[in-house]
C-alpha cells in the first residue's frame, strides 16, 4: 500500500503544486477587516479540497464572532487510531510590500522554492496532509488510520476563538493523537521534532504612593518614593546566580533528562557567536545550564518595562506618586500560570514597603506544552522521519509559546506531535516568504510513513 501511495504522490506532484498556488493566491489575512470576504473564500477552498481528497462530513463551522473552522473526517479504519490534523488557512499581512521581490499573492517558483505569503506558514504544510489522504484513498481505497481535520482561520491572531470552539466540539474533535506541521526542521535535509513549548504568565505591578506627585525638596527623604520601592522589589526577584528567588517558582518544573540534554548539544548555538552577534560583553543566566537550555527549557522571570516619574527632556525634581513595571514569565512543564502569579503576589506581600500600596494585575496566561520524546507517537514520527531523510531527527524545544497547542492536547487528552517541514530562513511573517519544494516530496512521504507506523500503535481507553 505504502509504495503505491508514494508513487502516486510523485506522479501527481505538479498538479498538487498548481493547487497549492491556487490556495496561496487567496489573501486570507485574518488580522485585517478588509479581508473578511477572502477569509470566507479561503475556508470554502479548503473545504472543497478536503472533499476532492475523499474526506467526509466536510463542514465550515462558525466560531463565536471569529473566522470559521473547516472540519472533515474519514473514520473507516475500525480498531485503528484516530489522528486529528490541526493547521490554519490564515496568513500574516504582506507588508512591507516594497520589500517583496515578487507579488506576495502571486506564487512564483525560483530555485525550487515557492515564493508567496503562506507558502511555509501554513498553507503549504496543511496541503501536504490533504494530498496524503487523497493518495491513500485513490490508490488503496482506504487509510491506515482514522483521520480528522481541524483547520482554523485565526492562528495568526492568537487563535482567540479556538479554545472555546474546541471545548464546545470536544466530542467531534476527539482523537488518540494530534499532529500539526507549523514548525521547522533543523536545516534543509535535517529533520527535527519539537516536543516542548514554554508557557506564559504576564502581569503588571503598580506601586502607588502619595495622592499626587510631590516636590522632592519639601518631601524627599520623608515620604516613600514609589520608584525606590519598585526597584527594591524588582531586585528581589533574582538571586546572585540568576535563579528566580520567588518561593515555589521551581516546584513543578520537570527536570531535564540526560538524553534530552545530550540531544540539545546537537542543536545548541555557539555561545561565543551569540555573544558576538548581540554585541554584549558576556551572557548571563541561571547557572548550570547552557544558553539553549536557558532559553528553551528553563523558566524565566523577565522585567519587560519600567515606568514612573517625569519622562520628558531635562529633570523634574519630584517624588512621583506612581511607578509600574511589566513582567513576563516564560514557563516550562508542568508549571501553571495562575500558581506562578500567586507565588509572585505572595513574594510581594512578604516584603516590607511602608508608605506605598502594591497591586498586581494579571494579564497573560498560557500553559506550557510538552510531549515526552519516548511517547509511542513521537517514536513513530522519528522513525518516519528517519525512513524519509536517512537520519534520526534531533529533538528541540522552543522558548516561545503557542497556547493553542497545549489547549488541544489538554482538552482532547491526546499527545501532540509537531512534525514540521519548514526550514529556517524561509521568511515566515516577513517579505519573500517561501517553501523549499524538496520538502513537499519529503513532507508527503514522511506523513504517509507516519500514518502507516501509527496504525500499529494500540491506544488504551481514555480516562
Automatic annotation (TrEMBL):
Keyword annotations from UniProtKB, A to Z: Hydrolase, Metal-binding, Protease
GO molecular function annotation: metal ion binding; peptidase activity
UniProt key word Metal-binding: yes
Keyword Secreted belongs to the record: no
Start and end residues of each Peptidase M20 dimerisation domain: 195-350
InterPro entries recorded: Cyt/Met_Dipeptidase (IPR051458), Peptidase_M20 (IPR002933), Peptidase_M20_dimer (IPR011650)
Single Gene Ontology BP annotation: proteolysis
Superkingdom assignment: Bacteria
Descriptive protein name: Dipeptidase
Amino acid at each position: 500500500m505504502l509504495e503505491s501511495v508514494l508513487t502516486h504522490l510523485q506522479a501527481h506532484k505538479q498538479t498538487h503544486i498548481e493547487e497549492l498556488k491556487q490556495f496561496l493566491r487567496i489573501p486570507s489575512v485574518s488580522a485585517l477587516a478588509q479581508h473578511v470576504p477572502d477569509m470566507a473564500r479561503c475556508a470554502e477552498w479548503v473545504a472543497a479540497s478536503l472533499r476532492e481528497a475523499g474526506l467526509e462530513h466536510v463542514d465550515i463551522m462558525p466560531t463565536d464572532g471569529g473566522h470559521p473552522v473547516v472540519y472533515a473526517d474519514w473514520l473507516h479504519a475500525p480498531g485503528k487510531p484516530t489522528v486529528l490534523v490541526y493547521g490554519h488557512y490564515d496568513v500574516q499581512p504582506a507588508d512591507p510590500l516594497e520589500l517583496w521581490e515578487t507579488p506576495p499573492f502571486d506564487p512564483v517558483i525560483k530555485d525550487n522554492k515557492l515564493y508567496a505569503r503562506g507558502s511555509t506558514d501554513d498553507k503549504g504544510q496543511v496541503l501536504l496532509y490533504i494530498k496524503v489522504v487523497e493518495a491513500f484513498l485513490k490508490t488503496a481505497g482506504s487509510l491506515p488510520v482514522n483521520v480528522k481535520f481541524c483547520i482554523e482561520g485565526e492562528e495568526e491572531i492568537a487563535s482567540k476563538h479556538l479554545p472555546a470552539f474546541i471545548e464546545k466540539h470536544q466530542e467531534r474533535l476527539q482523537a488518540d493523537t494530534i499532529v500539526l506541521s507549523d514548525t521547522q526542521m533543523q536545516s534543509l535535509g535535517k529533520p527535527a521534532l519539537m516536543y516542548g513549548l514554554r508557557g506564559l504568565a504576564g502581569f503588571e505591578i503598580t506601586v502607588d504612593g502619595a495622592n499626587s506627585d510631590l516636590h522632592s525638596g519639601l518631601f524627599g527623604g520623608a515620604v516613600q518614593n514609589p520608584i525606590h520601592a519598585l526597584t527594591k522589589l524588582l531586585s528581589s526577584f533574582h538571586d546572585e546566580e540568576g535563579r528566580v528567588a520567588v518561593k515555589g517558582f521551581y516546584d513543578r518544573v520537570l527536570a531535564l533528562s540526560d538524553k534530552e540534554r545530550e540531544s540539545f548539544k546537537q542543536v545548541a548555538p555557539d555561545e561565543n557567536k551569540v555573544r558576538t552577534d548581540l554585541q554584549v560583553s558576556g551572557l548571563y543566566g541561571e547557572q548550570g545550564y547552557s544558553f539553549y537550555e536557558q532559553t528553551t527549557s528553563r523558566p524565566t522571570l523577565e522585567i519587560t518595562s519600567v515606568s514612573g516619574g517625569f519622562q520628558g527632556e531635562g529633570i523634574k525634581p519630584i517624588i512621583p506618586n506612581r511607578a509600574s513595571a511589566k513582567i513576563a514569565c516564560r514557563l516550562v512543564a508542568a508549571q501553571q500560570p495562575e500558581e506562578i502569579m500567586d507565588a509572585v503576589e505572595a513574594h510581594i506581600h512578604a516584603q516590607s514597603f511602608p508608605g506605598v500600596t502594591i497591586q498586581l494585575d494579571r494579564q497573560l496566561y498560557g500553559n506550557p506544552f510538552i510531549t515526552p520524546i519516548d511517547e509511542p507517537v513521537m517514536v513513530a514520527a522519528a522513525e518516519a522521519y528517519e525512513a524519509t531523510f536517512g537520519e534520526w531527527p534531533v529533538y528541540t524545544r522552543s522558548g516561545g509559546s503557542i497556547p493553542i497547542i497545549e489547549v488541544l492536547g489538554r482538552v482532547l487528552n491526546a499527545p501532540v506531535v509537531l512534525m514540521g517541514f519548514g526550514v529556517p530562513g524561509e521568511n515566515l511573517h516577513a517579505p519573500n516568504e517561501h517553501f523549499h519544494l524538496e520538502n513537499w516530496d519529503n513532507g508527503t512521504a514522511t506523513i504517509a510513513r507516519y500514518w502507516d507506523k501509527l496504525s500499529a500503535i494500540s491506544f488504551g481507553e481514555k480516562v
